[in-house]
Amino acid sequence: MRSNKSTTISLNKIILKAPKVISNLPAIIKGIKIGKPTGPTTPTGLGWTWEKAVKSNPNGLAFLYEDSRFTYHEFNLWANQICHYFLDQGVKKGDTVAIFIENRPELMACVLGLAKIGAVSAMVNTQQTGNVLTHSLNLVKPKYVIVGEELTGALDSIKSSVDIADNKFYCLADRNTRKDPGQVPGNYLNLAKEIRHYPTTNPYTTNKIYFNDPCFYIYTSGTTGMPKAGIFKHGRWMQSYGGFGIGALRLKPGDILYCTLPLYHATGLVICWSSVMSGSAGLAIKRKFSASSFWSDIRYFNANAIGYVGELCRYLMALPEQNDDKDNPVVKMVGNGLRPNVWKPFKKRFGIKEVFELYAASDGNIGFLNMFNLDNTVGVTSAPFAIVEYDRAADKPVLTSKGFMKKVKRGGTGLLLAEITANSPLAGYTDQTKTNKVIERNVFKNGDQWFNTGDLMRDIGFKHTQFVDRLGDTYRWKGENVSAAEVENLISSYQEIEEVVAYGVEIPNTNGRAGMASITPNIGVESFNFKDFYLHVKNTMPHYAAPVFIRMKATMDTTSTFKYKKTDLKEEAFNIAKTSDPIYAALPGSTEYTPITQKVFDEIMEGEYRF
To answer: How far apart are CA 558 and CA 566, in angstroms?
Structure first.
């Protein structure tokens, strides 16, 4: 379990924040109201809120990327051409188009253009390759695929494995295609060229999109198996737009939010973008996060807000302190996963005034927000929820004699459940059987239904909660959820492996849990080719999923029902003093798994390696 010092919310803390909360109350109420379900034919959603922002601030900056700048009016013309082009190709409301582009304006233009149709953008993780990429595409059955030139290699290698016609693949050159369409590989249509002569006017379809219409498919590893496609509806966009944007961040024209988070995840795509759009402000994006250039980028874009995940903040704190650390325009930040031991030091070092920590799941029906700007909490929610007692050893909730679950007391830690109601519906996944697996029924009374978040939370008082840890066979590393089952499947494909168990382990001074795999080879350990195995791991899975540690076991320990004893493996982790099994690590800068000695173990525990 993640070490997480409890911070109790007292009445005094609430009272101290009351004056500011009261002054912001009209905006908070407005934001909550905007996020409520609307009538079945009331226009709403991403395209509708975008066109509203265009009207209010047409000449204001909407996007900033490297040396490119786009006003709301200019970007709207671009998105409209994409919209009209795909309308002409027969794309209609509810159809799926896969987006496989790294962070750049082209991605946002495609998403926006398709959203105006009511088409669903499948936001494919740009780090996926091989079988995982094939699965993600086949899962949602897209009519078309739009890929960035930078990712054509990964797509080319699996094109024959997906059920999509060759003339349905579009490519955008790796450049500012609004200025110059450039050239793309011959087996792709050049989307930038195709759209050039299409209308730039707003389409009529924007006003035909409603609260319950799907907007994105955002992939999540879930608890087991291959990625699942979570359905993200336009109504949830409105909840983020109203709650995070209008009710919390309250950005305005001229403000800039800097986002280096991957835009295939909801924190960047939804939380950051909707918050910006709600104030007709600007969004500065970067292809990939860089700690060394982060603050120079902030100053270059003159950004006064940032989007974050906990790992990002830890990397920035690991930089050598500079005299000008506070010499930056940032005053507020929105994101998730900021650990208690980093929270206050980060605010102090970089001069941050407001931290809008949140908790949300793209496949769920609940979101928390640190509305009161208190430390070490994900805040509050307007959705009905419960934190119930959970037996970690048995891996299931604690039940009463009547078979119902039990809520934890104040200060207690348990499993977070969110009630499924008309005002808090669960969209779930494209696969209904997967959706059924995350629904708990008859929790407190017969007939009730609750979404099982799979997360442990702490009740810290006054409806505030604190994130503690993930449950099940999913662990989080490098800002990504990793499916242990999928890691096991990919490792098992190596010819010298007989059995494998994957799980997450903690490394001091890092966020989340690093991957570790216990493996039983079908040959002797002394004959096992660690260098070749390392290459197999690197070539078959994203870097964040590749196990950092490998434990060699002669046989796997199982329970009487033949389940692997993961609890023991997690407890022993990579500590060589707790086992006689050889343990290996992929140390930073290494090109193979090397044995962990006592010296190496001590250096890892003392933070000598930057994982």
So the answer is: 9
d(CA 418, CA 424): 8
Axis crossing angle, helix 46-56 with helix 72-88, rounded to the nearest 10: 140
Domain boundary among 450, 470, 490: 470
pLDDT in tens, 413-464: 999 999 999 888 998 899 898 899 999 999 999 999 999 998 889 998 888 8
| Assigned domain for 214 exists | yes
Token pair, residue 571, equals 């407890």
- Is the same domain home to 451 and 597? no
Containing structural domain, residue 39: 11-363
Q: Which two tokens stand for residue 250?
A: 């309250």
Number of independent structural domains in the chain: 3
Q: pLDDT for 144-191, tens place per residue? A: 999 999 999 999 999 999 989 999 999 999 999 999 999 999 999 999
- How far is residue 104's CA from residue 107's CA, in Å, rounded to a whole number? 6
DSSP reduced 3-state for 322:
coil
List all residues 6 or more positions away from 16 whose beta carbon is below 8 Å from its beta carbon: none
Q: Are 14 and 22 in contact (CB under 8 A)?
A: no
Query: Are 332 and 353 a contacting pair, CB within 8 Å?
Result: yes
Which residue blocks in 554-594 are alpha helix, DSSP H? 566-572
Q: How many whole angstroms from its chain centre is CA 122?
A: 14
**Residue 369 resides in a domain:** no
- For 575-591, b/e burial (b = at least 16 CB within 10 A) is ebeebeeebbbbbeeee
Crossing angle for the helix pair 105-117 and 46-56, to the nearest 10 degrees: 110
